[in-house]
């Protein structure tokens, strides 16, 4: 009896599908199953395709691709339609795809297999969960979407493994999962689920040549499906003794492949029988591919984090040694995305004179080159400072160094691709811990801010020059002022001020509110200043949190990560009462508030800064009209110096006394010996009213001659008591 006769007797037909020629060859039984006359026939592909349900037809290509990848049979459950679109029967196709190369070099397939009519699956069997259409299809698609989203969001290997352990597959939930990693010639378990402690012991370290399914999967790159314990015992007798004790009856071992490289294997084990139909294998294969990609991404991310941490650790200094009478805290937060490295830095440098220097700077850019330039510039500034140069000389040499460095790199690299020459802003402060004297040189950087002992915060204007690296030979004037006991100075980069959609003014208002609302905390009598250090550390944390919320740069969550720019901040506190950094007096006197500002002939725009300084100094003054009067008189005095002399104006303001009875004294000094005198300006005159204003608005005023120049001053006395809320 011929083979065709035997197959026909059991209602099984033969077919050959040549995808290259588009012809399908059917024997008589296969033609009958497709609703055609029961005789051998060769038909075009379109004629046969019209007999299949269109939804089932769409699955065939995926099934064939899977069978080719696994070198297995392509199995499909297909519904046969008549010419009126009614379902005649359901058939099972089992075929072997043979790869063929066409004359034009294209790879195509030829299918040789069988068709057999099947009855609908009965409840309680795995086949009941594996039809191509229906609820299982929708469940599978929903599961793969959820699994892909969860794996794509995992940021570390541990998160990927946790997601893989929580996957609940439609219709066939695994009882145990394990992920095997490859390192050299050895395999090890890097994560598992559904096993007890120590169960992974025999599998933690095995050679690639071991007679174990995962090892064979790694060697061959092909999946292994073991539907029954008998299959496992027959194919891997040596490993069966280890697998038997878990009480499972079906296993799937799939390769984890990324970019053609097998990076490991994934095991899914079941306590119920699984036939591993094409649909089930398709789901498992898709999950394995997503799992491999997620592990690859997590590995790259962990390598980047390790590189970032190493770069930060090597480039960012430690704040030490401790300085008697001073407390220092600092923070650095890199920008979001990429390697999370950038051009911001800070440093603390011991000087040969016994003083120390605080440096904060920002190299243009947020990339690896900015980080490299930052490291080189930081070393150069430290070297110049350690030689004993003054602040202005340190910045002049650093500017020349950066300009030469960028110029040499431009010759080696294409400036258009690398963004052209870079520059850097920098603030250099030389500190005398005994007297609190600060000498500040500034290169295009934001001014420092000072929190006074009563909580008032003022931006301390300082003279400055161009950013480093723009012009090699640049002068940087030095500004001197004293940090009084109990006062805290803040240095920061513009990332702390302007991040989150703020400009310089609104960002500074945000930080000022944080600094002023943080109450001072007296030290607990610790000679080492531990309590004061903790207070300053908390203040540094609050400043960073004001930009992008509490801890949003450490973990994912509902808060938006606003690290649009690197952030560096340094706090320097001179220990004293009411600052939280030193001992507390039993009955401390209310400290005076002082500010000082130089307005140069070439910088008339700083008159507005002088007015703002007075308003900030008197932010809690009881009488708003007196504040307006003080601002008006300061503006008039400074303007007169710039208009009627050839020198600069030095403004010194001090508010002293208890709330409600304070005295404001403002002095403006210049280098001219010409004294002011009262005039009688006409109605249309544009000047000549300065002395009249002083007589009308000030409680007292005068002119003090000096050896060179003079000092014009006025005083205001706070007239009314503040409200009860202000006293609180």
Give the tags:
six-stranded antiparallel beta sheet; alpha+beta; 20 helices; about 35% helix; about 725 residues
Report on the architecture of this protein.
It is elongated and about 130 Å long. A six-stranded antiparallel sheet has the order 3-2-1-6-5-4. Strands 9-8-7-12-11-10 form a six-stranded antiparallel sheet, sandwiched between helices. The termini are far apart. α17 packs antiparallel against α18. It is α+β, with helices and mostly antiparallel strands and about 725 residues long. β4 and β5 form a beta hairpin. The protein has 20 helices and 28 strands. The relative contact order is 0.06.
Number of strands: 28
**Could you name the ranges where pLDDT drops below 50 across 5 or more consecutive residues?**
122-134, 522-529, 551-561, 582-587
- The amount of helix comes to 25-40%
Treating each run of at least 4 consecutive H or I residues as one helix, how many helices? 20
- How are the strands of the largest sheet arranged? 3-2-1-6-5-4
User: Structural class from helices and strands?
Assistant: alpha+beta
Report how far the terminal alpha carbons are from each other. 109 Å
Mean of the pLDDT scores? Answer: 79
The proportion of strand residues reads 25-35%
* Main sheet record: 6 strands, antiparallel
**What's the shape?**
elongated
Radius of gyration: 40 Å
């Amino acid at each position: 009896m011929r083979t065709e006769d035997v197959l026909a007797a059991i209602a099984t037909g033969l077919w050959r599908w040549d995808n290259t020629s588009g012809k399908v060859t059917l024997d008589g039984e296969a033609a009958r199953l497709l609703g055609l006359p029961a005789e051998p026939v060769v038909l075009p592909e379109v004629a046969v395709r019209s007999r299949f349900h269109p939804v089932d037809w769409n699955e065939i290509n995926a099934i064939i691709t899977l069978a080719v990848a696994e070198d297995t049979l392509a199995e499909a459950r297909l519904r046969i339609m008549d010419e009126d679109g009614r379902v005649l029967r359901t058939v099972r196709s089992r075929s072997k795809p043979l790869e063929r190369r066409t004359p034009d070099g294209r790879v195509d397939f030829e299918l040789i297999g069988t068709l057999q009519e099947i009855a609908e699956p009965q409840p309680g069997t795995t086949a009941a969960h594996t039809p191509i259409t229906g609820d299982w299809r929708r469940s599978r698609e929903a599961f793969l979407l959820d699994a892909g989203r969860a794996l794509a969001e995992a940021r570390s290997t541990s998160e990927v493994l946790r997601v893989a352990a929580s996957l609940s597959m439609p219709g066939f939930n695994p009882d145990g999962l394990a992920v095997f990693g490859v390192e050299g010639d050895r395999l090890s378990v890097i994560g598992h689920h559904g096993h007890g402690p120590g169960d992974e012991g025999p599998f933690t370290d095995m050679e690639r040549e071991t007679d174990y399914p995962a090892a064979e999967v790694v060697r061959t790159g092909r999946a292994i499906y073991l539907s029954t314990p008998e299959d496992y015992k027959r194919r891997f007798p040596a490993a069966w003794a280890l697998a038997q004790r878990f009480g499972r009856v079906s296993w799937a071992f799939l390769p984890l492949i990324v970019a053609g490289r097998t990076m490991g294997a994934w095991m899914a084990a079941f306590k119920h029988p699984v036939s591993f139909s094409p649909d089930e294998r398709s789901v498992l294969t898709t999950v394995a591919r997503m799992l491999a990609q997620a592990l690859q991404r997590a590995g790259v991310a962990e390598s980047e984090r390790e590189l970032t941490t190493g770069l930060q650790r090597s480039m960012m200094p430690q704040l030490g040694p401790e300085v008697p009478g001073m407390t220092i805290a600092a923070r650095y937060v890199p920008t979001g995305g990429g390697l999370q490295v950038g051009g911001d830095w800070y440093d603390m440098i011991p000087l040969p004179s016994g003083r120390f220097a605080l440096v904060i700077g920002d190299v243009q850019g947020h990339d690896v080159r900015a980080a490299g330039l930052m490291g080189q510039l930081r070393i150069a500034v430290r070297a110049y400072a350690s030689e004993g140069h003054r602040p202005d000389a340190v910045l002049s040499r650093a500017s020349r160094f950066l300009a030469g460095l960028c110029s040499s790199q431009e010759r080696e690299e294409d400036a258009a691709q690398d963004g052209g020459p870079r520059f850097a802003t920098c603030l250099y402060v030389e500190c005398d811990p005994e007297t609190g004297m600060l000498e500040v040189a500034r290169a295009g950087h934001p001014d420092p801010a000072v929190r006074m002992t009563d909580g008032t915060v003022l931006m301390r204007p300082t003279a400055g020059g161009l950013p480093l690296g723009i012009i090699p030979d640049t002068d940087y004037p030095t500004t001197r002022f004293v940090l009084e006991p109990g006062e805290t100075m803040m240095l920061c980069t513009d990332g702390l001020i302007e991040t989150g959609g703020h400009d310089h003014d609104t960002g500074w208002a945000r930080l000022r509110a944080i600094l002023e609302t943080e109450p001072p905390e007296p030290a607990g009598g610790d000679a080492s200043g531990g309590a004061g250090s903790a207070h300053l550390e908390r203040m540094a944390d609050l400043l960073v949190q004001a930009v992008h919320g509490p801890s949003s740069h450490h973990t994912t969550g509902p808060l938006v990560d606003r690290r649009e720019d690197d952030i560096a901040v340094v706090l320097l506190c001179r220990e004293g009462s009411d600052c939280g950094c030193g001992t507390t007096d039993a009955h401390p006197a209310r400290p005076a508030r002082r500010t000082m500002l130089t307005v140069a002939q070439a910088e008339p725009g700083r008159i507005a800064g002088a007015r703002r300084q007075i308003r900030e100094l008197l932010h809690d003054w009881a009488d708003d009209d007196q504040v307006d009067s003080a601002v008006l008189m300061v503006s008039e005095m400074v303007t007169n110096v710039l208009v009627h002399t050839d020198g600069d104006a030095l403004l010194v303001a001090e508010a002293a006394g208890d709330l409600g009875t304070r005295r404001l004294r403002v002095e403006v000094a210049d280098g001219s010996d010409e004294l002011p005198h009262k005039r009688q300006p006409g109605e249309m005159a544009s000047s000549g009213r300065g002395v009249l204003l002083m007589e009308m608005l000030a409680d007292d005023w005068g002119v003090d001659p000096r050896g060179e120049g003079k000092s014009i001053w006025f005083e205001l006395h706070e007239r009314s008591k503040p409200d009860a809320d202000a006293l609180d």
